[in-house]
What we know:
The chain is built from 15 helices and eight strands. It is of the alpha/beta class.
Amino acid sequence: MKLKVGLLGGGSWGTTVASVVARNTPVTLWARSAETVNEINSSHTNQTYLPGAVLPEELRATTDVEEAVAGADVVIMGIPSQSFRSVLEMVRQHIRPWVPVVSLTKGLELSTRKRMTELINEVLPGHPSGVLTGPNLAREIMSGQAAASVIAMEDEIIVKELQGLFRSGLFRVYTNDDVIGCELGGVLKNIIAIAAGMGDGMGAGDNTRSAIITRGLAEITRLGVAMGGRSETFAGLTGIGDMIATCTSAQSRNRHVGVELGKGRQMQEIIDEMVMVAEGVKSAPAVIALGKEYGVEMPIANDVYKVLIGENDARMAYRGLVRVVAKAESEPG
């Protein structure tokens, strides 16, 4: 018997994952916008978030959370980090006991600095929690290009069942039991992508981008390990893999923010014209606070954060990054 899936979130990645899963099993997608829901059901498109993409006819959408969740065997959360808790509380009213809940969100709750699986465990105790994450650009997956992702959960039996749920065509899904490492890789690389974008916006070269990516990876690995993740996780798809995609692709929202900052534009102006959320901007204060809490030096993240809050500009931050005194490669800086 096929599992029924309820997916909450009608943005680009939520709609993409719903489309992938719909090839394997029935999916009901919840979105706040009645216009988006009507478009998905009638035209099988979501032009606001995935222009030009054709969605599976089997994919159904609704504005009713109960309709999406009440009969679901698996619930998938494609909700921005700062709205994640409030939507979970809506889900709590309708979800059946022990149903697994999987996060697609690469962010931290600002007020608590918690990961999304921590929020799931807090709001929905008893429900197995996990995360689907990796170097996954929505438009490429919708166009049928090959991609790989990771489903991370502590329960080995459930994660293998979910692996088959998400795997489809050229979309390959691996499993991992390091939930902390996998989740933090997706969260922390966003702020490094802003740094890489700032360099690109100022006309820096490939050498500069490579240096930011590799030093940024070392930086987020230190914090991730301090928080309980495994170092080898950051050398895989959810670490360096996601970092490369996010720091180099024109489709990356976080890199886009950095590029525009590098061109001298103001933060609010950039955010106002974006349809989708750049999670690195939202989570940056929480990342900086975690670095201080765990005693981990994060020079790149700190420089980016100062630009985001207006204490510095991209050119001065870049100047600081390239002038820092080089130590041993294994050391911060």
